[in-house]
Amino acid sequence: MATGLGRSQRFLSCMVTFQKCNCGVLSKFPQLSTSTYLHKARSSSERIKKSISQTGPSLTDFLRKSQPSQPALQGVDNVMGSGSYLGVHLFPGNNRSVYIETYGCQMNVNDTEIVRSILKQSGFVNSSSIEKADVVLAMTCAIREGAEDKIWRRLHYFKALKKRRGKRHSLKIGLLGCMAERLKHKIIDQEQMVDVVCGPDAYKDLPRLLVVTSSSNQAAVNVQLSLEETYADVVPVRLNSDSPSAFVSVMRGCDNMCTYCIVPFTRGRERSRPLTSIVNEINILSEQGCKEVTLLGQNVNSYRDLSSEEHTSSPTQLSAGFKTVYKPKTGGKRFAELLEAVALVNPEMRIRFTSPHPKDFPDEVLDTINAHPNICKHIHLPAQSGNSGVLDAMGRGYTREAYLELVEHVRKAIPDVALSSDFIAGFCGESEEAHKDTLSLMDIVKYNFAFCFPYSMRQKTRAYHRLEDNIPKEVKMKRHEELHATFRKHAEVRHMSQVGERHLILVEGESKRSSLDWAGRNDANTKVVFANEPLSYGSENGKEKVLAKPGDYVVVQLTSATSLGFKGKAIYRSTLQEFEEQRKKEDRNVCASL
Ligand code: 5AD
Ligand code: SF4
User: Fold this and answer.
1) pLDDT in tens, 531-558
2) Nearest-5° Cα angle at 554, 449 to 450
3) Do the two domains 242-357 and 377-497 of this chain adopt the same fold?
4) Where are the beta strands (DSSP E) in 251-397?
5) What angle (nearest 5°) sits at the alpha carbon of residue 151, between those of residues 150 and 155?
6) Of the N and C termini of the chain, which has fewer Cβ atoms inside 10 Å?
7) Sign (positive/negative) of CA torsion 87, 47, 267, 105?
8) Where are the beta strands (DSSP E) in 60-124?
9) How far is ligand 2, taken at its centre, from the CA of residue 47, in Å?
């Protein structure tokens, strides 16, 4: 695997951390990785400041690294190789039970699956009861203040639970993921809320952190970011193993540095998992009966596997009219190759991906999506704003015009493609006019779905340092509501126009409202609910009728629609390939009759 970090650099980074870390406790555990700190719960604020500065990239780190004259990795003292954690057998869980709560995006769900796997290997067991668990962990999100507020409330509850139990049944509390990375030691030293703080690249160290905090009764922290950790060697323990759908992480981190976004600081630099390890995992999922895989990454279509020598060094193709904030990258196996390889694993397995950046949709990617019936014709194309000035302030690397041209191009390349997007309301300096531009962009594109968020200022980001969060809260909320209402208006019209069509639905499970109904999704990822009645296979006229089950494909005639989904009538059970054949036949018939 490409490490991206030379041995001497890696050694240096560990040494820097070691020298600066002055906890004293380390000497008690000479076998510990030098990258981790053990903190006495009541350490001095002086020391807190020192250690915080050692353990997270600042905006300057990114800016420094983006300058072409410097070696890409210079000046980052918080980055380490993934090989620096110690063997799991040294830190046995001894069947201690762990309850994990997950907040945030699908990437966090997948990270929880990775953590479960790592803990299982070390002899911890999973618990579904917070009351009975020995350890409670929160997999956290830091993207907006609201997300963090929710987690804070939960941490207070965990702390109260711990106090209530006392020595009778001691409880260890751990903070994992983005909020852990953002707050680092602060959460221990200022709030004394948790015993373990573990950032997104340090999960392999979690067994040790848990063992250490139990034996020393002191807090343990590892928030080192890595240039190479992709957890390619960890087989996730799926949270819902009965589900026909699974998430597979293909890359981590983000180099885009959108000015509003904390992700590059909490998840670190972009790195991709070797293509072969992804295909191997998906092969296993396919053998286990999984019918839908979502490829995950903060910037999934920036995928670039540099692990093999075979790849070319041809320059990276971007979408027309788009640019990057970083020095152009070359080489590696790109997203189109990954999509192709993954699609070929099992033609009956649906492939989705999230979350992409619009800059990385060269024709190769669009052609690959088009060429494989099992790659869903749904593209998430986060616009964030419809105004070129705001887009510039956000550092998105495109204008309104370039984005709209891309939409047109995608729609030409993939007829019937479903589009979704993310939007931020009330970004720094957004005028009423600029907001109207976003509404008008929505009117033009008419998305199938959109996530809309009021802007939330995040420390460390470029917007925090350089721009003013000057849109009053009420205005942000009003604009947020307008964005939401506009997306729903268009989605409803779009969905209503599809009533009467037959869609192929992958059954996920019982509908939330009634155990007599199945819920599943169509190719566009829109929810469809229908009555669970016996169905024949291949056509509605078949004799033998059986009930469909989760993981089956069912042809459903859509009978009603809202902005968020459909109701329908199940017609027959089918396969993805047969449905595609049928669709092509019907298209040929229509052409012939013209
Ligand atoms: N405030 C509001 N929304 C944000 N997002 C990212 N950072 C912020 C922020 N500071 C949104 C973007 C992104 C999505 C995952 O979250 O729309 O695409
Ligand atoms: Fe954040 Fe922009 Fe990276 Fe998405 S592309 S994770 S919004 S910095």
Assistant:
1) 999 999 999 988 899 999 999 999 999 9
2) 5
3) yes
4) 251-252, 271-272, 292-296, 304-305, 333-334, 350-354, 378-380
5) 125
6) C
7) positive
8) 79-80, 97-102
9) 32
Identify the architecture of domain 502-593 in CATH: Beta Barrel (2.40)
Residue matched to tokens 């309301």:
425
Mean pLDDT confidence for 163-179: 93
Find out whether 25 and 31 touch, Cβ atoms under 8 Å. Answer: no
Mutate to test the pocket of ligand 1, among 424, 458, 479, 487 (most ligand atoms within 8 A of CB): 424
Measure the CA–CA gap between 65 and 4, rounded to whole angstroms.
13
How much is the pTM? Answer: 0.86
| 267 Cα: distance to centroid of ligand 2 (angstroms) | 10
Distance CA 424, CA 451 (A): 9
- pLDDT surpasses 80 at 476: yes
Q: Which helix (H) or strand (E) holds 521?
A: strand 517-521
- In the predicted model, is pLDDT for residue 212 greater than 80? yes
Question: Per residue in 328-372, pLDDT tens?
Answer: 788 899 999 999 999 999 999 999 999 999 999 999 999 999 999
- Sign, CA torsion 247/253/256/258: positive
143, 261, 380, best to mutate for ligand 2 pocket (most atoms within 8 Å of CB): 261
The domain defined by 242-357 folds into Transcription Regulator spoIIAA (3.30.750)
Pocket of ligand 2 (CB under 6 A): 254, 256-258, 261, 263-264, 298-299, 357
Fold designation for 377-497: Transcription Regulator spoIIAA (3.30.750)
Boundaries of every domain in the chain: 2-68+79-222, 242-357, 377-497, 502-593
**Torsion angle (degrees, nearest 10) of CA 563, 565, 570, 571:** 50
Residue 395 Ramachandran class (φ > 0 left, ψ -120 to 50 alpha, else beta): left
Q: Can you tell me the mean pLDDT for 48-69?
A: 37
Grade residue 190 by pLDDT with cuts at 50, 70 and 90: confident
Closest CA to 240 of 366, 91, 369, 128: 128
